[in-house]
TrEMBL record:
It comes from Proteiniclasticum sediminis. One of its GO terms (molecular function) is RNA binding. The lineage of its organism: Bacteria, Bacillati, Bacillota, Clostridia, Eubacteriales. This is 23S rRNA (Guanosine(2251)-2'-O)-methyltransferase RlmB. Residues 8-39 have a biased composition (Basic and acidic residues). GO terms for biological process: methylation; RNA processing. Residues 47-122 form the RNA 2-O ribose methyltransferase substrate binding domain. Belongs to the class IV-like SAM-binding methyltransferase superfamily. RNA methyltransferase TrmH family. NCBIfam families: rRNA_methyl_3. InterPro entries: Alpha/beta_knot_MTases (IPR029028), Ribosomal_eL30-like_sf (IPR029064), rRNA_MeTrfase_TrmH (IPR004441), SpoU_MeTrfase (IPR001537), SpoU_subst-bd (IPR013123), tRNA_m1G_MTases_N (IPR029026). The keyword Transferase applies. The gene is rlmB. PANTHER family: 23S RRNA (GUANOSINE-2'-O-)-METHYLTRANSFERASE RLMB. Residues 1-39 are annotated as: Disordered. Keywords: Methyltransferase, Transferase.
Length: 290
């Protein structure tokens, strides 16, 4: 070995020793998947999970493209689902349950998942037309950046029961209609017109131009819900789970209403607050015979 080669060998060994020393100072190596948690997977809006939501989908205007069924599922309502699918020439694929777990958004698929055509969002004029066709004054729910799909599903379920003609959500910073919403709404989303709009504040101006009175929900409202007359055209605004109604949207409201509370906890879940106020509107209209 020449002197030059020996010198290079010594330099290489010194570099390796320095690298080992630095690694020891930093501590044991942590795998990448532990150090950097994976980003939350985007929810697939084009699947419905669970037996009852899928049965509801068969009775709706949704187009079911195919079913994934867990191998060996031959009891209960799953038999009816498979039978209905085959009567309508909908492909039924038996798959391993792990495949369903991978596809599922909720992990509570009950052994069956349906792929459907994307949810058909409506436009504001469509919602106003629904009220007109029913001969009723418009009752519209406006959701200002609701982010939890369970809240949206619960709200839609109550909305369908209380005579709401349509629900408006923003295109950004808001949950859309996905499998969790279908499941939580118990199929009510199939019977409710939902519109996505670019700007909530501008939409409230359009609703005012259409003759609706805009009520915002806030615990610091200037009037209490049970003392409010909701007999006219109503647009009811429910705010984000944490932040409530945004400042600009609140400025667009004609009135801010609060729900009276006598307990020590001074706040309500967004879907619960929405449910209480929707029933206030419904009972006002029933009392007025409208």
């Amino acid at each position: 070995m020449t002197k030059r080669e020996n010198k290079r060998r010594i330099e290489t060994e010194m570099i390796k020793q320095e690298d080992r020393r630095k690694r020891l100072e930093k501590g044991p190596r942590v795998p990448r998947e532990v150090r950097e948690p994976q980003e939350e997977r985007e929810l697939n809006e084009n699947i419905i999970e669970g037996r009852n939501p899928i049965l509801e989908a068969f009775d709706s205007k949704l187009t079911i493209e195919k079913l994934l069924v867990s191998k060996g599922e031959t009891q209960g309502s799953i038999v009816k689902i498979i039978s209905m699918a085959r009567e309508r020439n909908i492909p039924v694929m038996e798959v391993d349950r792990r495949r369903l777990d991978d596809v599922s958004n909720t992990k509570h698929h009950q052994g069956v998942i349906a792929y459907v055509t994307p949810y058909h969002y409506r436009e504001l004029p469509d919602i106003l037309k629904i009220a007109e066709e029913r001969g009723e004054k418009p009752f519209i729910l406006v959701l200002d950046e609701i982010e939890d799909p369970h809240n949206l599903g619960s709200i839609v379920r109550t909305a369908e029961l209380t005579g709401v003609h349509g629900v408006i959500i923003p295109k950004r910073r808001s949950v859309g209609v996905n499998s969790t919403v279908y499941k939580t709404s118990a199929g009510a989303v199939n019977h409710m017109a939902i519109a996505k709009v670019t700007n909530i504040a501008r939409t409230l101006d359009e609703l005012k131009d259409a003759g609706l009175f805009v009520y915002g929900a806030d615990m610091k409202g200037d009037s209490e819900s049970h003392k409010t007359n909701f007999s006219g055209g109503v647009a009811l605004v429910i705010g984000n789970e944490g932040k409530g109604i945004s400042r600009l949207v609140a400025q667009k409201c004609d009135s801010i209403v609060s729900i009276p509370m006598v307990g020590k906890v001074n706040s309500l879940n967004a879907s619960v607050a929405a449910g209480i106020l929707m029933y206030e509107v419904m009972t006002t209209r029933l009392s007025a015979g409208k």
